[in-house]
Structure formats: C-alpha cells, structure tokens
Amino acid sequence: MQKLLNFCLEMEFYLKIALSCTIAQQLFFLLLNKLKLNLIIQVLLYWLVGTISFYAIGIFIEKLIKSDDSLTKKLTVRVKKVKKQSFPNFTLKGIITGEIKALITALIIIYLAPEVHRGNGLILNMGWFFMRIVAADFCFYVAHRLFHTKLFLKIHLKHHEFHDTSSFVAGHKSLIEYIIVTMTDVLPIFIFGYDITQLCAWTLIGNIYNLEGHSSLSVFFIPSNFHDLHHTSFHGNYGIHSFWDRVFKTLNPINKKTGIMFPANSIESKLNSLSSELNIIKSVNK
C-alpha cells in the first residue's frame, strides 16, 4: 500500500506539470497561431518568456508570499532547521551576464532542435509534456548525481553555498554547471522536437516549479521537503522529484505536505489516521 501511495504522489507531480504546461500551451497557441515567427523572433520570444517569468515568479515568492509571516509558516515544508544565510544581491553585471547566457542558449536550442508543429490537441500536448517531464527528470537525475562525485563536485559547489534556500538559488550556479544542466534540460527537446508554443509553456511552468522547489515553500507543485533535504544533507534526492531517486534507492526520507493542493498526501494521511484508530480499537478490545 505504501509503495502505491508513493507512486501516486510521484505521478501526481508529473501530471500537475503536464496539465499546467498543456493549459499554458493552449494560451500561447491562441496568441501565436496566426503569426509567422522566424528564427530570430522565436529566439527572442523564448528568451523573454524565460527571463520575465523567472524574475516575476521569484519576486512574487520572495517579496510577496514570504513577506506574510503567517502565510510563510503555513506553506513552509522545511523541517530540519538551518542557520539563516544572507543571499547575494542582484547586480547589473550579474543580470546582464545571466541574460547573455540565456539568450545564447535560446539561440542554440532554436537553431539546432528540430521544429515540429503539433497544433493545440489537448491529449497530444499533455502526452508530450508528460514524456517531457519524466525524461527531463531522468536526465537531471543523472547529471546531478554526477555533480556529487569527486570528479565533478567542484563544478557544483557554487550552488551548494546555501543550506538555507531562496527561490533565486535555483539560478545560482557556475557557468559549467549552467551549460550542463541546460543540456540535460533540452536533451528531450532534441529527441521529441519542439513546437514554440510548447517550448514557451515548458519554460514558464519549469521556472515556477524550479523556483518553488528552492523556496522551502509548498505552494502548488512541491509536496514535500525533497530538495531542502538535498541542500542540508548534500547527498540523495538528486532528481527534480522523488521518482528516480526511489527507483535508484537514493531517496532521503521526505516529510510530506498535505492539503487540497496535494491530494495523494492527504489520502495517505487519512489512511494512516484511520489505521491508527483501528489499532487503538483493537488494543482496547483485547
């Protein structure tokens, strides 16, 4: 039963990503369907969606949600307390450097990846996004686990300067790690091909779950302290979510957040409560 519940939790995460991406893709399709987009416009569009959503979502989490202490306490998933750290301030040089990297990356992806026009079919797009997140999770798991070997550890240490996490820690990495992580993220695009509406949707939703995952909050996509444990323990929990870590037995035990946003966790919590009550009744009857 526990294995089934864990599997439901992991599929819930994948399905949320796939469904959210599909909804976003429908919106992008409505906006872009009748426009003729050449290479340069696609590159600029892809880059702008990624850049604007990254800063907007990060600021929303850090400056709006976290400014409300009661809301932050309610949404916090971190269980293991760590010493608070001050995070680096944004600098003009840092922002410009980051955007140049992002723009070059967008250009390379759009130029090299095969373009496939898939339209706005709901089932087709949801299936594409579901395969996309499962494949991306596997690719990230492999790369991230390699980062924690002696051979590649130095590449990854910049990201692990923080035990306490903030949304923008998601983008705090060395240039080499940025390149490798980007390659793992876009590898499924080269396998499945890209449609610009799918690519924009993936970038938008990807920024949301990535920034939420580094925020120590459980808002919509993140149902546990999975990534917080990776930052505090420095081993295990290498994937985007727990599926591949469970498969390869590198999962650190997670504390699951229940609530309406996370039905699989709520069902498990209710079943555990029911089981405890039944055990109490049995012991009393004896």
TrEMBL record:
GO terms for molecular function: iron ion binding; oxidoreductase activity. It comes from Cuspidothrix issatschenkoi CHARLIE-1. Keywords: Membrane, Transmembrane, Transmembrane helix. GO terms for biological process: lipid biosynthetic process. Residues 131-250 form the Fatty acid hydroxylase domain. GO terms for cellular component: membrane. The keyword Transmembrane helix applies. It holds the Pfam family FA_hydroxylase. This is Desaturase. It is found in: Membrane. The chain crosses the membrane at residues 12-32, 44-65, 90-114, 126-147. InterPro entries: Fatty_acid_hydroxylase, Sterol_Desaturase_Related.
